[in-house]
Amino acid sequence: MTDPYLPVPLTLAARVDQVFPTLTPAQIARIAAHGQVRAVQPGEVLVEAGDQVVPFFVVTAGQVDIVQPYGTTETLVAVHRPGQFTGEVNMLSGRRTLVRARASASGEVIELDRDHLLALVQNDGELGEIFLRAFLLRRVELIAHGIGDVVLVGSSHSPGTLRVKEFLTRNGHPYATIDLDRDADVQELLDRFQVTVDDVPVVICRGTVVLRNPTNQQIADCLGFNEAIDHTQVRDLVIIGAGPSGLSAAVYGASEGLDVLVLETNSPGGQAGSSSKIENYLGFPTGISGQELAARAYAQAQKFGAQLLIAKRATQLACDRKPYAIEIDQGARVPARSVIIATGAEYRRLSIENLSQFEGAGVYYGATFVEAQWCGGEEVIIVGGGNSAGQAAVFLAHTARRVHILVRSSGLAESMSRYLIRRIEETPAIVVRPHTEITALEGGDHLERVRWRDHQTGTSETHAIRHVFAMTGAVPNTRWLEGCVALDTQGFIKTGPDLSPEDLAAARWPLVRAPHLLETSLPGVFAVGDVRGGNIKRVASAVGEGSIAVAFVHQVLRE
Ligand SMILES: Cc1cc2nc3c(=O)[nH]c(=O)nc-3n(C[C@H](O)[C@H](O)[C@H](O)COP(=O)(O)OP(=O)(O)OC[C@H]3O[C@@H](n4cnc5c(N)ncnc54)[C@H](O)[C@@H]3O)c2cc1C
To answer: What is the pTM of this model?
Structure first.
């Protein structure tokens, strides 16, 4: 059934009074103290679709319609009556608005500019909660109904289409799709834009610009994701990477009054964003998808005033000067009094076509107590011949019926510590399979069967094994740092007490004090989460480190 405020049915279990709350007279009076009362006429446009940094309106008399314009026509999206207010998450990010707000009757509104709205969200707990919840829920509705300024023309078989979908989804940006495999009329559209097969996917951006197989950065630029952000001003804190550790540092830094800018090469969420369900993060007993956790953290950071540059890769740290500067694509520089490096690591993934189908549903990147319980009494496969693979094998052998270690080389001797090899030899439940590689994964919602191939004998076998641990190591994202901070032998960043006197001497550590916990060999530059040597590879530890580093940033800024 259609509800009175949204001409399309709500998709959420959320109540309509949470998506479109009606404020009390006392709440309206608190808002009015920060804004201006103004009369509106029927047909008057208060916000135009595509406008940037738009004001916020509370309707006090009359009615304001929210519509999506298509050329000369409009589709009604929502209706705001007295006591209700305009806006969705773009109010926080300052990105271009997706819809038009138009008075449909003569009346009166209270108008607040974005800065006053942000101040209100931060200082008035009750209103902050109402606005934030409504903005987020409205965005979810826009996404669910594909009401936005992007049309994606692509094929579900094309990796480029999947990449663009993932980029838009992980940035919480609504889009409509035209599936080339299903829509017969689409050829006419493609012909009109002279689009060839190589140009797919095509992104029609804000109704006017046609992007052919665009990069994520081109999409971000076209949609104006970063337009409202001035990256030339010196920031108290620049955070590189918007995974859990970077987002946590952004939330703590901004909420404690620091001027924070985050650079993210792709979308907020990092590795955690690709996890279908995180079940061991405190406070979420039934689990939370990585994407939802990231979306909440992103909104939380923006609520406190942190700014995020999306699809901007840090390519170099200018560490020979103060303030430091971070070079981003196309040579622009972002100056910073302090820096937190939160660029994480990329797990080497098995090169199997349908791998992502089973990630978290039979394919794992860590062997903890939780995974061990899932595999109890069953056979498991560990891929990799390093120490992490050996430790996992010994650990899982306590509960699993059999542990197969698959290595491409002739054995473990070259890659694993001797003590682990001995333990593996002494554990009858562990079988080492040299020269062997997984060639296929099969199943439905969960992995059911694995095919592997012995390259020496040329034989392939399929086994009903439901659990694969990819332990082929993680590569830290530190190449861009080019000698600015001390790294360990694996390329992870050394911090705090892990920095030896030799490291500090080589880095010409200039201060009398020793580096703080999580501080690198460069004063005022910190490293947190999976990019740090000795990290724990957990969302919780990444989040914790982000908050700890901010405590030391305050001390460094006072020095
Ligand atoms: C599939 C999967 C499932 C997982 N499940 C769990 C789980 O259930 N529980 C748990 O506790 N842990 C889990 N983990 C581990 C957890 O996700 C990581 O420990 C955590 O994400 C680390 O956070 P981080 O912020 O340090 O780094 P990351 O999450 O790696 O984020 C780093 C970010 O930095 C960005 N970046 C990299 N280089 C640059 C650059 N040069 N410029 C700008 N940005 C850059 C990246 O795009 C990325 O967004 C899982 C990991 C994976 C891969």
So the answer is: 0.81
Residue with CA closest to ligand 1 atom 1: 275
Ligand 1 centroid vs 46 CA: distance in angstroms?
A: 41
| Burial class of residue 93, CB neighbours in 10 A (0-12, 13-18, 19+) | buried
Distance CA 134, CA 203 (A): 29
Spatial separation of the C-alpha atoms in residues 527 and 246, rounded to whole Å: 10
Give yes or no for residue 530 CB within 6 A of ligand 1: yes
**Which residue's CA is minimally distant from atom 13 of ligand 1?**
538
408, 436 in Cβ contact below 8 A?
yes
One-letter amino acid at 257 equals: G
* Tokens 């034989």 belong to residue: 459
Ligand 1 atom with the shortest distance to the CA of 267: 49
Cα separation, 308 vs 264, whole angstroms: 7
Task: Report CA(20)–ligand 1 centroid distance (Å).
Answer: 35
Q: Return the CA Rg of the chain.
A: 26
- Contact (Cβ atoms closer than 8 angstroms) between residue 63 and residue 81: yes
Closest CA to 50 of 110, 90, 6: 90
Task: In whole angstroms, give the CA distance from residue 470 to residue 392.
Answer: 10
As beta bridge partners, residue 204 has 151, 210
Amino acid found at 365: Y
Q: What number of residues does the chain have?
A: 559
Q: Phi and psi at residue 514, in whole multiples of 5°?
A: -80, 160
Output the CA 342–ligand 1 centroid distance in Å: 9
* DSSP reduced 3-state for 60: strand
In the chain, the N- to C-terminal Cα span, in Å, equals 61
Q: How far apart are CA 148 and CA 69, in angstroms?
A: 10
Q: Which amino acid is at 91?
A: M
In the reported structure, the alpha carbon of residue 532 is separated from the centroid of ligand 1 by a whole-number distance in angstroms of 12
Answer for the pair 110, 60: CB distance below 8 angstroms, yes or no. yes
Summarize pLDDT for 193-225 with one digit per residue, the tens: 777 878 889 998 887 888 999 999 999 999 989
Decide: 79 and 62 in contact? Cβ < 8 Å.
no
Q: Find tokens 């135009």 and name the residue.
A: 48
Stated as kind and residue range, the H or E segment containing 166 is helix 159-170
Mutate which of 271, 485, 531 for ligand 1 pocket (most atoms within 8 A of beta carbon): 271
**What pLDDT is recorded for position 414?**
85
Question: Separation of 269 CA from ligand 1 center, angstroms?
Answer: 7
Cα 109 from Cα 120, distance rounded (Å)? 17
pLDDT by 10-residue block (mean), the chain, 559 residues: 46 73 97 96 94 93 93 87 94 89 96 93 92 90 85 78 86 87 73 78 86 94 90 96 98 97 94 78 89 91 94 95 91 94 90 86 79 88 90 92 96 88 95 96 92 95 96 90 94 97 96 97 97 92 98 96
